[in-house]
Amino acid sequence: MEAGRWNKLVGPSDSVHGRRHRRRHRLLPTMGDPLDVSADAVLADTIDGEVATAVAAHMQALWRYRRRIRRSRLGRQRCIGSVPGRRPKKNCHFRSGLRAILRDYFGLDGSSPVYDKADFERRFPVPRSVLLRIYHAVKGRFLFAQRINATGRPQAHPLQKVVAAFRVIAYGKAPDRADEDVRLSASTIAMSVRELLRFIVDDFGPAYMRPPTPAELERILERNAQQGLPGCMGSLDCSHWEWANCPKAFADMSQNWHGKYSVVKGTGCDENLWIWHLFVGCPGSQNDLNVMHASHLYLSVMEGEWPPRTSSYTANGTTRTLLYYLVDRIYPPFAFFVSPFPDPTTEVETSFNRLQEALRKDVERLYAVLTARFHIDLNPARHVTVESMVIVAKAVAILHNMVTEKRRDGSVSRTRMAAAAQAAADGSGGGGAVGGGAQGVRNGAAETPAAAGGAAGGAAGNGAGGGCGGGMGMIPIGGAFAAGVGATGGGVSGGGGAGTGLALDGVLPPPVLTEPAAGLVELGAVERV
Questions:
Q1: What is each CA distance from 52 to 42, 48, 55, 62, in whole angstroms?
Q2: H/E element holding 236?
Q3: Per the domain annotation, does 513 fall within a domain?
Q4: Number of domains present in the structure of the chain
Q5: Cβ neighbours of residue 462 under 8 Å, at least 6 residues apart?
Q6: Statement to judge: residues 434 and 392 lie in one domain
Q7: In this structure, what are the phi and psi dihedrals at residue 420, rounded to the nearest 5 degrees?
Q8: Per-residue model confidence (pLDDT) at position 348
Q9: Confidence (pLDDT) at 84
Q10: Contact 163, 98 (CB under 8 A)
C-alpha cells in the first residue's frame, strides 16, 4: 500500500507531472530545508510516526526533483513568449496609435484635424458622421470594448478597432497592412472586421435593407413618371463577385463563363442608387434567370406579397395596378418586368428602347459605385464559406445606403429639379416665359424637365417655352435630354397636354404604341390626348 502510494506520488505522467511541479516551484523557494518540515511533522504527530516518515520522504524526493530540473534548464534556451516556441509579444503602443487617429482625423487638444472632410471621405468609404454613428453603437460590444489586461494596463481603444476595420473595408487589403496606422495586430484587425460586418448586418440591416414604405414607393413612382415611365419601381440586374478561395468541392458549380470562380449578386435600386433588393449566394455557373427564380423577390411576387396593388398608373389608355422593374433582354416576359424591344424596327420602338436603357443605367452605375467606394467588394473574395461572403455583401450594401441617405439631398437630379423649380418660379421676366413655362409651373409641372426647360428658356428671353402641363416624358437625344433643349437651345420645349409626352429634337410626340413592349405589358412610351 505504501509502495503504491509512493509510485502514484512520484511517478505521474509528463503533462500531469509538469503541472504539479510548476505549482510546487512557487512554494518550495519559500521553504528552508525540507527535512525541517518533516521534523516539525514528527513533533506534531507523536502517535503515528509512520505517516510523518512518509511525508518527509516525499518532500525530500520533491526537493531532489526540483534540483534536477533546475540543472537541466541551464543548457536549454529560454522561451520568452507566453507559449513555448512563440515570439515575444510586440510593444504596440496602443496609446500612440489612438493619438495618431485623433490627431489626423478628429482633432486633438482643441486643434483642427490634419485631414479635412474631403480627405477623410477619400480615405474612408463613409462620411465622418456615419463612422461616428457606427462607432458609438459598437463601442460597448464585447470585442470592441476597451479592456484591462492582467498587468493593469489598458488595451486597444474601440476607435482603433473601428478605424482599422473601415480601412480594410475601404481598401480591401490584408489586415496586417493597417497595423502601422492603428497599432494593432493582424489577428485583432481581422477579428474586428468580421465582427463589425456582422454587427452592421444585425443592427442596421432592418432599417437599411427593407422594402420601401408606401411614402417612399410613391416618391419613386412619381420621379419615374416624370422621366417617362409611370409605374416603374426601379431596375434589376446581376453581377459576379470573384471568389479567390473557392473550395474544390464547389469549383465546378462556381465557375462562370469567364472561367473564374464567382458568386452571383442580384440587386435592385432606384434613381438615387438606394439598394432595395439584394440577393447573394448563387454559384457563378448560374445566369440571371436562375438567380431570379431563386431570389426572395421573385418568390414574394409569385405569392402576391409584392408589389403592393395600392398604386395605379395609366399606359395606352389602360389603368394598371401591377408595378414593374426595368430589366435587360435576358429576363423572361413577366408582367412585372419591362425589357427593351429585341429588334426595334420603328421609330417608336427605338425611342422606347432609348428611354428604357437610360433609366435602367442606374443599376449598372450602382456596381461601379460600390466597387469604387468599397474595395473589399472589388477584389476577389478571400473567404472560405459562402455565408461570410453574404455577410460582407449585405454589410457593404447597408453602408452604401447609409452614405446615400447622407448625400442624396445633394444629388444631381434633386439639385437640378430644385433649381428648375426656383428658376420657373422666378422666371416671370424676359421673353416668352409667361407663354408656356410659367403655365406649366401653375399646372403642377415644376418638377418636370420639360416645364423646367421651357421656364428657363423663357426666363433667358431666348424664345417660347412650351411647358408640359401635366407631362412626364423625356428621352435622351445624343446624350442629353429633350427637355434640356428649352434651356440651352433657344427656349424651345415640347410637351404633351397631360400625358407622357416626349419631344424628339423639339418635334411633337409620335402616335401611341400599338404593340406590347417586347411581349410584356403594353407600356406606351408616348401618348397623346
A1: 5, 7, 5, 15
A2: strand 232-242
A3: no
A4: 4
A5: 431, 490, 491
A6: no
A7: -65, -40
A8: 92
A9: 65
A10: no
What whole-number distance in Å separates Cα of residue 143 and Cα of residue 195?
A: 8
Helix/strand/coil (H, E, C) string of 66-112?
A: HHHHHHHHCCCCCCCCCCCCCCCCCCCCHHHHHHHHHHHHHCCCCCC
Residues 309 and 374 in one domain: yes
> What's the CA gap between 340 and 353, in Å, rounded?
5
Asked if 277 and 151 sit in the same domain, the reply is no
Contact assessment for residue 427 and residue 456, using Cβ atoms and an 8 Å cutoff = yes
Q: What are phi and psi of 490, to 5 degrees?
A: 100, 15
Of 360, 382, 407, which closes a domain?
407
Boundary of a domain, candidates 145, 177, 207? 207
Q: Is residue 81 part of a domain?
A: no
Distance CA 414, CA 447 (A): 10
At 221, which amino acid appears?
Answer: L
Choose among 218, 242, 508, 181: nearest CA to 379.
Answer: 242
* Dist CA 334 CA 329 (whole Å): 12
Q: Specify the pLDDT at position 376.
A: 93
Q: Based on the fold, state whether residues 231 and 338 are members of the same structural domain.
A: yes
How much is the pLDDT for 274?
95
Residues 98 and 61 in one domain: no
Residue 210 has a pLDDT of 93
Q: Residue length, the chain? A: 529
Tell me how far apart the alpha carbons of residues 422 and 371 are, in angstroms, rounded to a whole number. 36
Q: What is the pLDDT of residues 323-363, one digit of tens each?
A: 999 999 999 889 999 999 999 999 999 999 999 999 999 99
- The range of the structural domain enclosing residue 285 comes to 216-407
Flag whether 514 is in a domain: no
User: Do 147 and 61 form a contact (C-beta atoms < 8 A)?
Assistant: no
Residues 231 and 346 reside in one and the same domain: yes
3-class state of residue 261 by DSSP: strand
Cell of 238: 446581376
Per-residue pLDDT band for 41 (boundaries 50, 70, 90) equals: very low
Query: Which residue is it, cell 469604387?
Result: 372
Mode of pairing for the β-strands spanning 480-481 and 476-477: antiparallel
Assess whether 171 and 242 both reside in one domain. Answer: no
Distances (CA, A) of 367 to 217, 371, 390, 396: 22, 6, 16, 12
Residues near 491 by Cβ (< 8 Å), separated by ≥ 6? Answer: 431, 432, 454, 456, 457, 458, 460, 461, 462, 463, 464, 465
Pick the closest to residue 383 from 124, 162, 210, 168 (CA basis): 168
Q: Are residues 253 and 402 in the same domain?
A: yes
Residue-wise DSSP of 286-319: --HHHHHHHSHHHHHHHTT-SS-SS--EEETTEE
Neighbour count for residue 117 (Cβ, 10 Å): 12
The pLDDT mean for the chain works out to 74
Query: Does residue 447 fall inside a structural domain?
Result: yes
CA distance 247 to 315: 50
Note whether 239 and 220 are within 8 A (CB): no
**Cα separation, 83 vs 93, whole angstroms:** 22
